[in-house]
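Quick question about two entries, pasted in order.
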Amino acid sequence: MNLDRRSFLGQLAALPFAASGLAMARPVRPRSLILVWLDGGMSHLDTFDCKPEASPEIRGDLGSRRSAIDGVFVSEHLPRLAARLDRCALLRSVSHGEGNHDRGSHLWLTGHRPSAVLVHPALGAVHGHEEGAVLPPYVAIPAAVDYAGAGFLPGTRGPFAVGGDPGQPGFLVRDLAPAASRSRALQLRAAVDARDGGPRGTHEAERDRFVSMADKLSGDPEARRWFELAAEPAERREEYGRNKLGQSCLLARRLVQGGVRTVVVTDTGWDHHTQIKTALTYGFPPKLVALDGALSALLDDLRRTGLDDSVVVCVASEFGRTPRMNPISGRDHWPRAQSVLLFGAGIRPGVVGATDARGEEPAERPIAPEDVFATIGAALGIDPELVLHTADGRPVRFVAEGATAVHEVLRA
């Protein structure tokens, strides 16, 4: 029997004891999350829930193609992803009532309905903040959108934003290496603190934690190397696509490989109220082409590096788009139906739920964003009963009351 390296290691790890009597097991990496956030509201009808039999005003002007999953049609502009869809979990019946960008983002990124008195923390502000880590536990590429921050938790739980455009030649994270004036600046800060004379407040303590985290990272060249896209082979960079989204996803893979626990990759420009066909198929590269290349390369790369056993990937946005095209060939906000893609660690491939013939609302198995949040938490191994506390000691559940993980897509 012929075994490839991955199968051999998997069978070896399954053996309870080696001949010597010593236990044999592969080291278990803590799980990480890559969230690909399509900011603006991805149209489910033009991506992962195409309706080729619907009337023109529903199916739109973009063609569709069969995927690797029987009966599932996706955009004709997602050929690479269509061929790999049987390695993913596709949730096609996600539905909620938040049709505003801000409110939808808060719901999705924090797992809680918006509140007038409380901003909840994003998942990355909770997950994986172990003491002593050199790399930031939570990174945003290129920047954090609203409600992807620390919420009511200390500011040190917020994401480290790399800034810039990873798709540009010569991309580097600014100010990552220690500046020549660093030592003098720290001396001046210490002198100012010494002159204060009063008790240290929480803001000063938080500032000092930020400085300590920055010192660890800037002082460790090996840790900084994980941010260097130039270290990747040219052919791998081409697989992802030499564009902002593609290179952002490649950088995310590098960072989770180095030990970062949550990476949010944000791709803006998915709010298509006018000329949606042009918006999705025009550009350098076109929107759908970039998404197809980035996600399919990430799927392959996680398997190649063995990280598909330790990295969860979620592709989502605030809401879906209206089933009927509007008079200016666009689609408006539509929270009653949207699609979400999951793959990687702890995720069982398959399709859960379906929308009706118009893509208007769930026809079966309605799923709330809070349920998806609970599902991701379960795949990462986060205790669903975890309780967080606000600055004044108020207890707040990490998983919203009543939220239930989508167990059909979770491996036992």
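Here is the second entry:
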Amino acid sequence: MFRGLFSIILPSFSARRRKPKRRGPAMERVSGANFAPSDADVVGGPKVLLADLAGDRGGGETGRISDALSQCGCLEAFRSNQVLKMNKTGDLVQQLLGAADQGRQLMHAQGADLLIWGEVVEGGSRLRFLPFAPSADSLPGAVGLGDALELPFQFGEDYVPVLHAGVLAAVGPTFKGSRGRIAEFLGPALQAARGFIEGEPPDLPPARHAAILTTLGNAFAAHSRLGGGGKKLGNAGAVYRMALKKISAEQEPEVWAVAQSHFAAVLKAQGEGKDEDATEHMKRAAIAYQQITETLSRVAHPYDWALAHINHGLVLYRLSARSGRAAYLQEASKSFEEALTVYTKEALPGRWAEVTNQYGVILLAMGEQVTGNATLEQAVKRFRQVLEIRKRDRAPLLWAQTANNLGAACFSLAKRNAEAALLREASACFEGAVEIYENSGGKKKAEVIRNNLHRVERLLSARSG
């Protein structure tokens, strides 16, 4: 749950890397003595910052987690004396967004790759992971604001590998240093945590066990992205299924939604493979995302509801490309219309532009399959609207992406209605996109667009002659 919020609140962090700033006196190193100091130019392991848990009087639980982190040899762990508290006003999403904003500032000031924060809850502590460079929300195991790991009070050594697996899964796939070293530690952590998969520890509530299993599923998915291959991805799917069997959507909607969303992402990734079961996996992914849209409330969980609609639409788009069935695109179009009732231009212009651009691609594909020009006209309209947000001078690559799409839509429509103005618009879009991609090193992309530009120019010449 809340996986898609990273694209709202961290739009530029994953695209750049910064030199860590010098840590102040509020920081305490708890591990990583074998690494270089954080303000050196030498890159060590991931730098993990643990914030004091809210409500942890005396700091006992924070200290226990700190001690557990110190046992993971590939991390450079630090403890902060600051506490991230969720403002109790607003809904859960607003509370998480506010805490994440504080967390980003803290990470940036301390040069951390991952922030671990949370609070003491009944019977234990709830931990959340905030990566400096989050994974795209559509990737298997991508950790979002709603992912949480609950550990019991005075947890024993059997919980330590679960914590290690959760931390490595959150930071590993996007870490700019040695990911191979992270994978070397992640594998043994998963092996050591197998007891939570093979059985159920006594006195562990089902919802807490489901959250632990989801964390381990994320770790298997991360391991596959770090070189573990398809087998690890299959393991992730199996563990997510186990988590879903522990709880019901009616009793634990948040925990269920997190596990279901991760499970659907695994099915989608498997569906993008080349084995004979790929299409069946993709169909199952579509069903899994649809179940989220039918189970969650648009009012209570708007962003998760909208994100599930987007992912449902994207999966249907892929199924249409394989089967040629326009019905998939029609259903995908409805999903994007629903999502755009949450991601509005006024409230979230950047996210709105991203979703609308994706929607335009679906309209373009559908317009080329159906008779009449209305759908293609709608695609052209949508892409033009996106360019009102994606300005060339402010976001050249995003502008080029949408300009290329607009050029394709204009060209496709012009071949039907013979409007020269559309061909001239397509030509200008393609020319601009070629220039941007060539200047940014996208030579292959520029070449493909240039070929389309030549097709437009030939048609313009033929019609004017």
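Reply: The two ends are 58 Å apart (CA to CA). Confidence is low (pLDDT under 50) at residues 4-25, 32-43. Hope that helps.
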